[in-house]
Amino acid sequence: MEEMKPNGAGLTYSSYLQLNKVLDSQTVMSEVAGRPVHDEHLFIITHQAYELWFKQILFEVDSIRHIFMNPSKTLDESKTLNIINRLNRVQLILKLLADQFQILETMTPLDFLEFRGYLATASGFQSLQFRLIENKLGMNEEYRIKYNQQHYKRVFNDPQSIAMLEDSLSSPSLFKLVEGWLERTPGLEKSEFNFWMKYQKAVNRWIEDCWLTVAQKEEDPVKKETKMLEYQKQKDTFESIFDPEKHQVLVDRGDRRLSHKASQGALMISLYRDEPRFHQPFHLLTLLTDIDSLMTKWRSNHVMMVQRMIGSKVGTGGSSGYQYLRSTISDRYKVFLDLFNLSAFLLPRDYIPPLTSAMKRTLSILSHEQIAELDADFEQSQSSSDSDEPINDKNSGANNGQEAVRTDADTDFF
Amino acid sequence: MEEMKPNGAGLTYSSYLQLNKVLDSQTVMSEVAGRPVHDEHLFIITHQAYELWFKQILFEVDSIRHIFMNPSKTLDESKTLNIINRLNRVQLILKLLADQFQILETMTPLDFLEFRGYLATASGFQSLQFRLIENKLGMNEEYRIKYNQQHYKRVFNDPQSIAMLEDSLSSPSLFKLVEGWLERTPGLEKSEFNFWMKYQKAVNRWIEDCWLTVAQKEEDPVKKETKMLEYQKQKDTFESIFDPEKHQVLVDRGDRRLSHKASQGALMISLYRDEPRFHQPFHLLTLLTDIDSLMTKWRSNHVMMVQRMIGSKVGTGGSSGYQYLRSTISDRYKVFLDLFNLSAFLLPRDYIPPLTSAMKRTLSILSHEQIAELDADFEQSQSSSDSDEPINDKNSGANNGQEAVRTDADTDFF
Amino acid sequence: MEEMKPNGAGLTYSSYLQLNKVLDSQTVMSEVAGRPVHDEHLFIITHQAYELWFKQILFEVDSIRHIFMNPSKTLDESKTLNIINRLNRVQLILKLLADQFQILETMTPLDFLEFRGYLATASGFQSLQFRLIENKLGMNEEYRIKYNQQHYKRVFNDPQSIAMLEDSLSSPSLFKLVEGWLERTPGLEKSEFNFWMKYQKAVNRWIEDCWLTVAQKEEDPVKKETKMLEYQKQKDTFESIFDPEKHQVLVDRGDRRLSHKASQGALMISLYRDEPRFHQPFHLLTLLTDIDSLMTKWRSNHVMMVQRMIGSKVGTGGSSGYQYLRSTISDRYKVFLDLFNLSAFLLPRDYIPPLTSAMKRTLSILSHEQIAELDADFEQSQSSSDSDEPINDKNSGANNGQEAVRTDADTDFF
Amino acid sequence: MEEMKPNGAGLTYSSYLQLNKVLDSQTVMSEVAGRPVHDEHLFIITHQAYELWFKQILFEVDSIRHIFMNPSKTLDESKTLNIINRLNRVQLILKLLADQFQILETMTPLDFLEFRGYLATASGFQSLQFRLIENKLGMNEEYRIKYNQQHYKRVFNDPQSIAMLEDSLSSPSLFKLVEGWLERTPGLEKSEFNFWMKYQKAVNRWIEDCWLTVAQKEEDPVKKETKMLEYQKQKDTFESIFDPEKHQVLVDRGDRRLSHKASQGALMISLYRDEPRFHQPFHLLTLLTDIDSLMTKWRSNHVMMVQRMIGSKVGTGGSSGYQYLRSTISDRYKVFLDLFNLSAFLLPRDYIPPLTSAMKRTLSILSHEQIAELDADFEQSQSSSDSDEPINDKNSGANNGQEAVRTDADTDFF
C-alpha cells in the first residue's frame, strides 16, 4: 500500500487510485514472446475489469452478511435500507458484467488462437473471486459440476487462497442467513396467526372451487377424466409443499433449497407484501431473485462467448471449456431457486387468508398516536368479537382512528 | 374495441393483443407515393413503439397521482410499495426509450431525406402523449421554450386533445402532490421536533468549525482572505435556504421549484433516511430523481439523433428542430430539480441533529410489544432527563428493551 | 388503411402513425370483467411492443433475402452495405427486445395470477410473427421441440396465417441463401486456388508439428500416451470436417447445418478476412452469429421471466410453459450453429496457406491503374516463378507498384 | 512487471492478470482515517474500472492512428477492416462507460459527503488518460473551457505526464489523419470526375426546382415573400459550403473543423456510399460520429451524476464542478462535429450527379476478368459517347458484361 496519510495531504487522483500499479499490470505475453497480437491487450483489460468488479461484489455481499449476522440474531430494521441498497448495487454491477462480454466478443477467434498458446495453463476456471462469490451467495458444493473430473478447489494451491475458500464455505452464506431470517417471519407462530394452517385451508378451498367442482360438473366422461387428472395434479403440487417430508425429499434431490419453515416465511411475505412491514422484505426477496437471474445471464453470456472463441475444442488450461460451462447454466446453479418457484404456490387474492387485527397491527407502520388509537379500537372490538377473527380491511382501525385523534393536520405524513 | 367477452372465451394471443389493428397501422407514405424508401418502415415502427410506451407511462403516472390524491389527504402507507414499484417501472421504461434511439440512428440522413418530403407538416412536436407526460409530471408551463415562436399547445386542434391537455394542466401534477406530501413530513412541526431550527443551528456550527476557524487560524494574510471568502460563500449558500424570502426569490426565478416547507421535508428525509420509516420515502425521492435524469437523457439522445438526421437544417413540420430541442436540455426542464440540488445542503453525519426519543419512535417500525417496552423505558428516562433531549442512538430503547421482553425468540423477524 | 394521400397533405404526427388505432388497441380483460388488475395494462403494452418490433425484423429479413435472391444468382456487391446495415439493425432490435423483459418482470407473480384467468387459452405460443422469424431465418422444422406433444403449426387455423407459415417454409430461408452464397466463395475452385486441398495439408502439418512431434519427444511413457491421445483427438476433430461423409453424418444428426462446400467457404472467409474483398463477407458472418446469439438470449430471458411468473405450474394456454421453453435454449435452435463452431477449425496465422498472386488480386480492391501495374508486375514475375506459387505478402505487387505509377499524389485515397 | 517468461510456463490466471497488484490497489482513505465509510470502496473501484478502460481506448486509438500514419501516406486497404473493428470496439467500450455511472449513482450524496474530505485535492480533473483520449481524438485546445480560470495542463506536474500530454498534442490526432484521408477521396480531382463542380450544379438545380419555382408560382404576396425568404435561406446555407472563404470563416469561429477539401470528401462518400469501394469509408465515418456522440453522452451522464452528488457546491479538488462540467456538453467539444452537420448538405437521390463510367469503375470491387471485360465495353462505348458522360446505372458495364464472360458459374461469389 502507498504511504497514504489519513489527512490525504498531497493526495492526487492518480495516487488515490494507485494508478501507478493498476495501469502497470498489463503484460502482453505475445509481446514478451516477440510476436505481439493486438487483441491480447483487450483480453487482459476485460478480465481485470471483471476482477475489480468481483472485488466490489464481494465487499457488498460481505457487508450484507455482516448485517444479518449481528449477535442478537435480530435484523436491525434501520439496516434494511442498507441491505436493499447494496443488493441493488450488486444487481447493477452484474448487469454491467453480463453486458461486458459484448466487448470481449469483438476479439475474433483467429486473434485468440494467435495468443492463447502463450497463456499456457492459465484459465478463467482459476478465478478465486468468482468462486468466493458463488460460495458466499450460497452455492451448494454438492451441486457443482466437476470440470475435467476435477474439483474446482484443486486449482488453488497457495495457503491464502485455500484459507479464503475454506472461510467462504464455513462462514454462513447469504442463503443461510436469509433462510434463518425467513424462518422468523412474523405470522408463522402456531400459537398466534398460524399462517400455515390458514394457508393450507385456503389452498384446499381454491382447488376444490376451481378444479374439483369444475371436473364434477363436466358431463362428457372423457373430458371429465382429463379434468379430474388436472385436479389431482394441482393437489399433488400443493401437497409437495404442505407435507414437510415431501418437501424434504425435494430438498435432498436438490429441487428445493430452503427449509420448510423458511418457505412458509417467503410465501407469507409474498402474499402479504402490501402490508407496510413487508414492503422491504418483499423488495429484498425480489432483489435476490434478480441477482440469481443475472448470475445465470452472466454464465449464459460467458458460454456463448466461449463457444465463439473456441468452438467445441479444448479450452485454455486444459478444460473441456464449452461443455463444462454449458452445464452450469442450470437450475442447480441457482442459489435462490425456491424464490423463482414460489409463484407456483401463490393464491388468487380472494382466497388469501385475511389478517387478524393483531396481525394487521404487527405488519403496520404506526405512529405512537395511531397505536394508542388502535388499542382503544381493538379493546372495543374485543368485547363483541374474537381477536383472532379476520377484520375487514376497509374498516381497519389503523385508518379509521387516524383522523379522529390527529390534532396537527399538518403532520399526517403518510 | 373488439367484441371481447369477460370470460375470455375464444380469446387468442392475436385477438387479445388486437394485432389486426396494431400490425395494420403502418402505411409507408413513400410507398403510397410510388417511390418506396426502405427505411421509412423503421421510422414508423420506432415512433409507434415510443407512443405505446408513452401510453404505459401515462397509465402508471396517473395511478400514482391517484394514490397520492386520496380524499383523506393522508398517504395510505400500504400503497407506498405500489408507488415505488410503479415509479421503478417508469424508470425502466424510460431507460429503454433512451436506448431506443440507437435503432433509429441506423437510418441514415440520406434515407431520411428521401422520404421526409412525404411527411409534410407531421412532426414529433405534435406528440400529444409526450406533452401529457411532461405536464402530469409537473413541467412548469412558464419554463417551456417556444418553438418557432409558437406555443406547443397551438398544434393541437381537436377538442379531445385540447381537453386532455387542459386536464393535464388543471389536475394536480405529480410534482404538486409530492410537494404537499413533503410538507407533511413528520419532524417539521415547530411545537415538537422542530427540525428546521435544529438544522440551522447545526449548519452554523459546521460552517464555523470547518471554515471560519480554519480561516481565522491562517496567518498568511492572502490565504486568510481567500479562506474568509470561502467561509462567506458557504454562509451565503445556506442562507439562501434558511431564509424563506431568499428561497422565494430563487423560486420566482425558476432556480428552485419546491415550497420552502417541502424543501425542509426533503432535507429531513435525506438526513434521517436510515430511520425505518424514512426508508421508502427516501427510495421514492431517489426514483423521482432517476426519472428526471432519464427524461433529460431522452431529450439529449433525441437531440443527438436529430442532429445526425438533419444537421442544422429545418426539421419536419417546419420547426427549427435541432436548435429548439437543444434548448430543452436544461435545468429548466427538470421537474424535480430541487432533489438534484439537495446535496448542496447536506451535513456530515456528526453534525446532523440527533433525534429525540419521541421522534425516534415516530420514525421506527415497531411491533406492539416493542412500543410497550419503549414506553416503559421512556417514562423511566423522563424522570431524569428532558423528553426532548437527544437520546444516544446506541442505547435507544428500541433495541435495548427488545431482548428483554421477547419471549418467542423464533419470531423476532426483523 | 387510412385515407392517406401521396402528397401527405394534412398529414399530422398522429394520422401518419395511425395512433387512433395503435393507442386504441388495449382492452384490459380484467377491467372488462369488472375486476381491474393494474398490471394487465403493462402486460398488453409489452407484448404489443414485441409484435411491432417483430414486424420490423420480418421487414428487414425479407428485404435481405430479396437481395440474395436476385435472378442472376450473383450477389450485387453494391448491395452488401444494405445487407450489413439491415442485419446490424436486426441485431440492435433483438438487443432491445432481450432487455425488454426487465420491464415485464416488474409485474409480480401475484398480479399475474390475478388476471391470467381472463386470458383463457391465449398464449405466447400463438405468436405468428415469431414463428415466421424463426422460419425465415432458417430454423429447421425437424429440430423443433413439440409443445404439449403438439406441433406449433396446429395453433394457427385461419387461412391467412397458414398461408404465411407455408410461405415462410417453402421460400428460401436466409440460412439457405447464405449457404448458397458461401458455396460460391472465390478460392474454392479445384482448378484454381484449390483452398480445400491447401487447407488440409496445412492442418496436417500443424497437427504434426504441435502434437505428434511433441508426443514423440516425450520420454515418460505415461505422459507419452496422454499426448498421443491428444494428438489423435485433434486429428479426429479435423477429420470430421475433411471427410465429406463424416460431415454429412453430423449434418444428419443435427450437429452441423451447412453443406460441406459452404463450410469450406466460411472457413476461407474467416482465414483470409484481412483481404479487402473479404472484409464485408466477414462482417456479414459476424452479424449472423450475433443475431443467433441474441435469439438465444431472447429465449433465455423469456424462460427466466416465465419461471418467475408461473414457477413450474401450467402456463397460459395450457402449455407446460417453463419446461417447453427451457428446452428451446439449445444448440438445436441455433440457425447458424456452424458459424459458432467454426473457431474449432481455424489455424494459427503461420500455417494459413499463403495466397497466390492471382488469388491475392481477386481478393483485392484495386483501382484501374493499380490493376494495370499489377499485371505488368505479374507478367514479369511469371518469367521467373510459377504463377500459382505463394507470393510474399510484404512484397506484393499491389503495394509495390503503387508508388511508382501514381502521378496525382493527392488522390491516393486508400 | 512480473517475471513473466515468454513460454508462459507456470502462468496462472492470477499471475497473468497480475491480480496481486490490481486487487491490492484499493486503499479506503476513510478507513485509514479510522472512520470507514462503506461507499468509498465503490468510489475507488468505479474510477479504477474507468481508468482500465481508458487505457484500452488509448491502445486502440493509437493503433488506428498508426495505421493511418504509414509512410506511403496511402491507407493500406487490407487494414480498413482493422480500423473499423477497433473503432467499433471503442464505441462498445464508451457505451459501457456511459452506463457505468448508474452504478456510481447508487452512492448517495450523504455518503459521499462523509468521505470527500479525505480526498483532499484529488479530483477527476486530474485524469491524465482522459486528457490523452481527448487530445488524440483531436479535441481542439482552443475550444477547451477553462476550469477555475486554470488551464487543464496545470494539474500535471511530473515530467512523464507532461511528456505524454505534449506528445498527444504534437503527434497527428485521429481527426487530422482522417481529414488528410478525406482530402484524398477519389472523385475530387478537378481534371477527372470533378465532384465539387457537379455537386454545386446539382444543388443549384434542386434549390431552384424546390424553392425558387415554388415561390415564384405563389400568388399571395405575403406567402410569396415568406417562400422567397426560405429560398434565400437555403441558398445561403449551401453558399457557406460552396465558398471556401465562407467555410474558412466558420472554421475560424469553431463552427466547422474539417478543411474545405476534406468536407468535399466526406460529402462524396455520403452521397455515393452504395458504391462498393465507399462501403467501408462510409462505415468508418458513421463510427466516428457514434464515438463523438458517446463521448457527449459520457460527459452528460457524468454531469448528472455530479449534480446529484454535490449539487451546486464546490467539487473535490476545489473545482466549481457542476458548472464547469456542464459547459463541456457543447458542440465545441465534438471532434467530428462536421460529420453530424453533413446531413444539412445532402441531396435527394434524384439530384445526385450520376457517376461517369470511369468513376463507377474506380469505386467498384471487380475481379480481374470483370475489369478486362469492362475495359472492352468501355472502349466500345468510347467510340459513340464521351467518357465523362454519365452512364446509365442499369446498363453499367460492370453488371452487363459479367454474365457473358463467366465460365465457372459456381464461383461468382458476389
CATH architecture classification of the domain at 18-172 and 279-332 in chain A: Up-down Bundle
Helix run count of chain A: 19
This entry's quaternary arrangement is homotetramer
Please estimate the helix content of chain A.
Answer: 55-70%
What does the overall shape of chain A look like?
Answer: globular
State the end-to-end CA separation of chain A.
Answer: 49 Å
CATH top level of the domain at 18-172 and 279-332 in chain A?
Mainly Alpha
Helix/strand structural class of chain A: mainly alpha
**Largest contact between protein chains?**
A-D, 71 and 71 residues
Task: Average the pLDDT over all residues of chain A and give the rounded result.
Answer: 83
Low-confidence stretches of chain A: 314-319, 371-375, 381-414
Q: Got a strand count of chain A? A: 0
Report the major sheet of chain A. Answer: none
CATH topology of the domain at 18-172 and 279-332 in chain A: Methane Monooxygenase Hydroxylase, Chain G, domain 1
The Cα radius of gyration of chain A reads 27 Å
Beta-strand percentage of chain A?
under 5%
SSE order of chain A, one letter for each helix or strand: HHHHHHHHHHHHHHHHHHH
Give short descriptive properties of this protein:
19 helices; disordered C terminus; 414 residues; homotetramer; Methane Monooxygenase Hydroxylase, Chain G, domain 1; 61% helix; mainly alpha
Structure description:
Four copies of one chain form a homotetramer. By secondary structure, chain A is mainly alpha-helical. Among the domains of chain A are: 18-172 and 279-332, Methane Monooxygenase Hydroxylase, Chain G, domain 1; 356-414, no CATH class. Chain A is built from 19 helices and no strands. In chain A, helix 5 (80-104) packs parallel to helix 14 (276-310). The longest helix of chain A has 35 residues, at 276-310. The first copy, chain A, is globular. At the A-B interface, helix 5, helix 14, helix 17 and helix 19 of A face helix 5, helix 14, helix 17 and helix 19 of B.
